[in-house]
Specification:
Layout lengths: L3 H6 L6 H6 L3 H15 L9 H14 L3 H14 L4 H7 L7 H15 L6 H9 L4 H30 L1
Helix pairs in contact: 3-9, 4-5, 4-7, 4-9, 7-8, 7-9
Length: 162
């Protein structure tokens, strides 16, 4: 069974790296489960699926991971039919919504310098109208997409050497 990491890394069933990943089936299963829980939760907690995809796109863009960015761009296009959120990430649209501005500022801060985030940064998100649940979800997205990018970098390196 292919999962999102297989797809992003271009791994095909039967290939050495695909088979190598299957030596740790729980890791594959739980990574895919994390993806589903983060991007398709039963309760979005006030952070919509479109906002989740847009935040992930922003992280992937900041990391300069083109394949990951394209993955989230496609995911976002299916959720953001007006293209407004995508435009704010791509720099083709401006939204003057304090809530969304706070989300983007937080994503940028934590992605570029995770050690520089302070309690006041969480307070800023809460003041902008995010629920505690949404703040936790946003943090999970930033961490998960950073993790995805690192795993993909490793898979790409191994694939190039295989």
């Amino acid at each position: 069974m292919n999962d999102v990491m297989d797809t992003l890394a271009g791994l095909q069933p039967g290939s050495p790296l695909f088979d190598l990943r299957r030596q740790r089936p729980d890791v594959v299963k739980h990574l895919q489960g994390s993806n589903s829980a983060i991007f398709s939760p039963q309760d979005d907690g006030g952070l919509t699926r479109a906002e989740r995809a847009a935040a992930a796109l922003r992280v992937a863009t900041l990391l300069r991971d083109d394949a990951l960015a394209e993955h989230y761009r496609i995911q976002l296009a299916a959720l953001d039919l007006t293209g407004t959120l995508a435009g704010t990430i791509e720099g083709t649209a401006r939204m003057t919504e304090p809530r969304w501005d706070a989300i983007l500022a937080h994503v940028d801060l934590v992605t570029r310098g995770p050690g520089s985030a302070e309690h006041k940064d969480i307070d800023n998100l809460l003041a902008a109208g995010l629920s505690s649940h949404a703040v936790v979800s946003l943090s999970q997205i930033v961490a998960y997409v950073n993790f995805q990018s690192r795993v993909l970098a490793g898979l790409r390196a191994l694939k190039g050497g295989a």
